[in-house]
From TrEMBL:
Residues 139-188 form the RNA polymerase sigma factor 70 region 4 type domain. The keyword Cytoplasm does not apply. GO terms for molecular function: DNA binding; sigma factor activity. One of its GO terms (biological process) is DNA-templated transcription initiation. The lineage of its organism: Bacteria, Bacillati, Actinomycetota, Actinomycetes, Pseudonocardiales. Residues 211-305 form the SnoaL-like domain. InterPro entries: NTF2-like_dom_sf, RNA_pol_sigma-70-like, RNA_pol_sigma-70_dom, RNA_pol_sigma-G_actinobac, RNA_pol_sigma70_r2, RNA_pol_sigma70_r4_t2, RNA_pol_sigma_r2, RNA_pol_sigma_r3/r4-like. This is RNA polymerase sigma-70 factor, ECF subfamily.
Length: 326
């Protein structure tokens, strides 16, 4: 059946090409997301990949599977995008009426965007070193962005997706020894926060309890209740704003600044990167509520270890409206 589809696709049959490639769309999209750190850039890279595959199907020799061939194209498209270095720039502080505290540091990965759980593919193969939830977590994707592009590609293909070293070498037009060397350097250079208390399972009563407590505290602007939910080393980030805050005291000052400015929010649940998320809607004096962004929580046991706020431009990808009725 595969040979027949390939023959029809080579003859210009678009339906046959879709039948060949569509089963791989979701995993290719999340692969591009891991490589690029941006949902929008990943969508663009996926479309470029499919267009290149359609145009280049005559060069497919059948020695590798269609899946491996598509990953080769997608990986090299992403490497080209990374080399182009036209990443989204950092933005200036843009929250009116709020004076932020001095940031702990300025973030490097300001182009980071969240990935909707609804679009995640099936879990990776048995050779993968990372569980799916970890392999799409914001912390992991951020750490990947700090690796050199070739090391990033090798680590994702080998450790996340479980491709054999020989196949990875073929995808990258290099040798197995080069792949092994790049993987060793990538593993050593992966800058991730030290693992602490694990997060509760998605949808579990433990996760539901933390989420419910956060919603109550945030919607009521109860700073004491909110601070009680945070770990000592809690981390706040707001890409594409570069401001980052680490530690409960400075995080509390930041959140108190929002609430003290009279900002009150309604939260609508979502899920991003295997983590609880919320569309945040600012209440106005007229009763309308305007979407200001998406919050993604990183949990540690019954506490919140990190909160990342994204711009309201990401809301449609999660099926969330730009505003809520009064």
């Amino acid at each position: 059946m595969g040979t027949e589809l390939i023959g029809r696709a080579r003859a210009g049959d678009g339906e046959a090409f879709r039948a060949l490639t569509e089963p791989h769309h979701r995993e290719l999209q999340v692969h591009c997301y891991r490589m690029l750190g941006s949902f929008q850039d990943a969508e663009d890279a996926l479309q470029d990949t499919l267009l290149s595959a359609w145009r280049g199907l005559g060069g497919f020799d059948g020695r590798a599977s269609i899946r491996t061939w598509l990953y080769r194209i997608a990986t090299n498209r992403c490497l080209s995008a990374l080399r182009a270095a036209g990443r989204r720039p950092a933005k200036a502080w843009d929250i009116p009426g709020v004076e932020p505290p001095e940031p702990t540091r300025l973030g490097e990965v300001v182009w980071l965007e969240p990935f909707p759980d609804a679009l995640l593919p099936a879990p990776p193969g048995p050779e993968a070193r990372y569980e799916q939830r970890e392999s799409v977590s914001l912390a992991f994707v951020t750490a990947l962005q700090l690796l050199p592009p070739r090391q990033l590609a090798v680590l994702v293909l080998r450790d996340v997706l479980g491709f054999p070293a020989g196949e990875v070498a073929g995808m990258l037009d290099t040798t197995v020894d080069s792949v092994k060397s790049a993987l060793k350097r990538a593993r050593a250079g992966l800058r991730r926060r030290e693992p602490g208390v694990p997060a509760p399972s998605p949808g579990s009563p433990a996760e539901d309890a933390v989420v419910a407590n956060f919603v109550r505290a945030w919607e009521s602007a109860d700073i004491d209740a909110l601070v009680g939910l945070l770990t000592d080393d809690v981390f706040l980030a707001m890409p594409p704003l570069p401001f980052e805050y680490e530690g409960r005291d400075v995080a509390a000052r930041f959140c108190a600044g929002l609430f003290d400015a009279g900002r009150r929010f309604s939260l609508v649940p979502a899920r991003a990167n295997g983590q609880p998320a919320f569309g945040a809607y600012l209440r106005t004096s007229s009763g309308s509520r305007h979407g200001t962004g998406l919050y993604v929580l990183t949990l540690a046991g019954d506490r919140i270890r990190a909160m990342t706020r994204f711009e309201n431009s990401v809301l449609p990808a999660f099926g969330l409206p730009r505003s809520l009725p009064g």
